[in-house]
Amino acid sequence: MLSALALAAVVLASPAASCVATEGGFDWGFKESFRAYLSGSIANGEWSTEGGIGYETPVFTSESLAGSVALAPLDGELAVGGAMRFTGHEGILDTTVSNLRVALDGQRLQLIVDVRGTTQEFVEVDTADVLFATGDLTAAEWTAGEDGLLIAGIPLTLTAEGAEAFGTYPEGEALDPLDLRLATTPACADEAIAARAAGGGMLVPLLIVGLVVLAVAASVLVHLRLRAAKRRGGGAEPEVPQPQ
Ligand code: HEM
Question: Has residue 98 got a pLDDT over 90?
Answer without folding.
Answer: yes
